[in-house]
Amino acid sequence: MDASRILIVEDDAQIAAMLRDSLIESGMIAEVARDGIAMDARMRASSYDLVILDVMLPGESGLSLCRRLRVATNIPIVMLTAADAEIDRIVGLEIGADDYVTKPFSVRELIARIRGLLRRAALPSLKEPRQKQLRFDGWLVDPIRRQLFDPTNARVGLTTHEFDILLAFCRNPGHVLTREELLGVTHAGLAGPIERSIDVHISRLRQKIEHDARDPVVIKTIRLGGYMFTATVEEV
């Protein structure tokens, strides 16, 4: 198996060198860019499996770079944030970062998180994406406009992650999807354990599409397995 290629976008030379050396010692290929301009140049010249992105950078901020990367690619992104910058972590996860690590951080923990993200990125896709609208129990899912309409044709607001998960369910009805598979179709990030991250999104989604979220029948929990979408889904 080829070594994973990691791009570190960090302007602090000492932190960047420490990260690069630690990743190389762990069997990965690591390169450094000090700002967004250097990151763009690196990514034009090479392909990478994951980006470590500092929030505080000279010029374009890490949050802006994260947003740009997510529009163009599904590459896993780990953000480095200051310990007291909770808003940066929240915004970073919402705009597409897959995980965050606060400074000062444990290099061993960071490498473990990186390996976890790389494993999830390597999971087989849940199915080739389709662009046709999908209907279940009177609900309509529009993958192109990324909108959900209830049986009365009223639009129902979903977060990015909720829509990603619902779309995965609709494309795989009757199949048990693990939490790792569901995490793989979102850019939800690991603000906590995988179980908590996905379960929170599932809970919110149930509140919007189930008749009784406390006794769900459309999104069933499969003990020790994950979740299964029980509704019949048709392309329209």
From TrEMBL:
Residues 131-231 form the OmpR/PhoB-type domain. GO terms for biological process: regulation of DNA-templated transcription. Residues 5-118 form the Response regulatory domain. Pfam families: Response_reg, Trans_reg_C. The modification 4-aspartylphosphate is found at residue 54. One of its GO terms (cellular component) is cytosol. This is Regulatory protein VirG. It comes from Martelella mediterranea DSM 17316.
